[in-house]
Amino acid sequence: MIAVMFLLIFSSLASNSEPCHVVDKEALLEFKSRIISDPSKLLDSWTPSSDCCHHWEGIACGSNGRVISLTRNGVVFDVDGIPLETYMSGTLSPYLGNLSSLQGLDLSNLKQLHGPIPPELAKLSHLRILFLYSNKFSGGVPASFEKLSRLQSLYLDNNQLFGNVPFSVFASFKSLSELGLSGNNLSGGIPSSIGSMAFLTRLDLHQNNFHGNIPSSIGNLVNLKKLDFSYNQISGRIPESIGRLSQLIFLDLMHNSFSGNLPFSMGDLSSLKFCSLSANKLVGVLPYSIGKLRNVQRLILENNKLSGKLPSTIGHLTSLTDLFLANNEFSGKIPPSFGNLINLQTLDLSRNQLSGLLPPQLAKLQSLQTLDLSFNPLGLVKVPKWISKLRVFQLKLAKTGIKGQLPKWLSCSSVSTLDLSSNALTGNLPWWIGNMTRLSFLNLSNNEFHSSIPLAFKNLSSLMDLDLHSNKLTGSMTVVFEKEVQFSLGHFNSVDLSNNKFCGPIDENIGEKASMSSIISLALSHNPLGGSIPKSIGKLRELEILDLEDSELSGNIPEELGDAETLTKINLSKNKLSGNIPEKVLNLKKLEEFDVSRNQLRGRIPPHKAMFPISAFVGNRGLCGPPLPPCKLSYR
Ligand SMILES: *[C@@H]1O[C@H](CO)[C@@H](O)[C@H](O)[C@H]1NC(C)=O
Ligand SMILES: *[C@@H]1O[C@H](CO)[C@@H](O)[C@H](O)[C@H]1NC(C)=O
Ligand SMILES: *[C@@H]1O[C@H](CO)[C@@H](O)[C@H](O)[C@H]1NC(C)=O
Ligand SMILES: *[C@@H]1O[C@H](CO)[C@@H](O)[C@H](O)[C@H]1NC(C)=O
Ligand SMILES: *[C@@H]1O[C@H](CO)[C@@H](O)[C@H](O)[C@H]1NC(C)=O
Ligand SMILES: *[C@@H]1O[C@H](CO)[C@@H](O)[C@H](O)[C@H]1NC(C)=O
């Protein structure tokens, strides 16, 4: 989009007076000569016999025949005007520095331009716009760029640039409004000269290796609207001066090493709409001044070490749509003022130390779609009834002290993700669970359900992840595998039925069931299953993890298991399996973990490439050969 605007600015200036200046033509032809591949013929019109101002695509000139803009980027439009991606490969000619009237240079998104950015570009003293993003340029940002004092937009993102950005470069960009250096491998500190770029509105340094502190001169960038330092290694405190950025709309500092408290001045960022400080080492309380961020829509502070009570001033943030405070050390009660967050769609307070009663005011959160209060010592006892009045799609209340039966109102709820794991739910897995046809994720693991799986379970045609491990469920598992699917929905990713009292045998045709066609992880271990391992498991062509340990299985390990080529982990430990270990299974290409210990297997362990420890084979009296002791003669 930036590129399109850029074209509009310059195309109107292209005039038909003077012919192309000889120096400029030479420079452009020299540029073309270093392009070794141009599949979309972006430079085909650039011929020595034609006039570069009037006949060359992507070139615009001033009235004196000097080139003022060069625009060849990696998006072309087909005959129907549909944009298509293309590329151009080669290196950048230093002759481009001879285009002495050039104001705009856009060679962005050509994917395959490589080599260094020529320092000669710094001779372009009229340059206002320089777009070289999304290529493979390497080396550093040339120190000579300090001469580009008229530059307004500089985008070098998504290249392979490395090294420090010379201090003098930042200091000299007095007119710069937009600076993008993201997605490179630039390192070193952020110099305090950054504060000299008084006109800066966008500063994007994300995904590099910058370290050190944010200099307090950042507070001078009072026109800044977007600041993105995420995914670097920046440390120290977030400077108090950040509060001066009253125009700032977007602030992303996530995945760095910031420490210390959040500055109280945060509250002065009155334009802020997006704020992510997640995955840092921030400590201390959330300053109550946070309640002044009246425009903030997404506030993401998860994965830090923030502590203390949640300030009730958060209730003033009525623009808030998403609040992520998970995985901190917040304690005390959830303030009743949270009920004022009428636009809130996501409330994630999971993995904290929150306790006490939930304020009934939360029932006012009519926009809420995702509620995650998991892993807090809330002592809820029951799934709060007010949730049934909302249209919540994701409900996660793992380990919140819920007891008793599954509440029946769930049967007519809109919930598609339900996690009530690690509670003390008991009684039957009710028949009406079959009415929850929107369910795609169900985690009821670590509870005390003790019944069989009701037949109506088959109606869960959207279900893709099922975790019922560590309950006291009985009867047959077959109803799970025979569950309905929809056209492309409802095929399992993962099924965990381990640590229950299910009876077998495992359905012989398990590998042919529609629900199982793309399963990745299957855990049936620690059940009194009996029977043998079905050959059809070999037909599960996306299966990576197979856990069948401690399940009273007998018979052979079927050779067909070796057809499931994506398997990375197989655990068959502690069964009554007999016969040999099939060579094909042991040599599965991606196999990383394998355990057949404590069975009744016999014979030589087949030669295999992967390294499995002795513990993977112990407890089989008849098994021999590396890594176990050598076989006796009779096995040769
Ligand atoms: C054009 O650029 C090249 C490479 O920087 C340089 O050697 C040459 O002298 C320049 N020509 C003119 C006319 O400036
Ligand atoms: C990035 O630079 C660091 C040194 O600053 C180097 O160790 C690392 O390998 C580089 N990474 C890539 C992907 O080039
Ligand atoms: C479950 O669905 C059936 C059929 O759609 C309906 O008759 C029944 O009332 C529902 N039961 C509950 C508990 O919602
Ligand atoms: C279910 O919840 C438990 C914790 O209560 C967790 O360990 C497990 O990974 C969850 N299952 C899935 C499939 O996410
Ligand atoms: C399950 O679906 C069948 C047919 O779609 C329907 O007759 C039955 O009532 C459903 N059962 C429940 C418990 O919703
Ligand atoms: C296989 O399962 C057993 C029993 O649960 C466990 O002790 C063992 O560590 C598992 N093996 C591997 C390789 O994970």
TrEMBL record:
Gene Ontology terms: cellular component: membrane
Signal peptide: 1-19
Principal subcellular localisation of the protein: membrane
Domain Leucine-rich repeat-containing N-terminal plant-type: 24-61
Naturally occurring in which organism (per UniProt): Sphenostylis stenocarpa
Gene Ontology annotations of biological process type: defense response; post-embryonic development; response to other organism
Top-rank taxon: Eukaryota
Keywords: Glycoprotein, Leucine-rich repeat, Membrane, Repeat, Signal, Transmembrane, Transmembrane helix
UniProt name for this protein: Leucine-rich repeat-containing N-terminal plant-type domain-containing protein
Subcellular location(s) per record: Membrane
Keyword field contains Membrane: yes
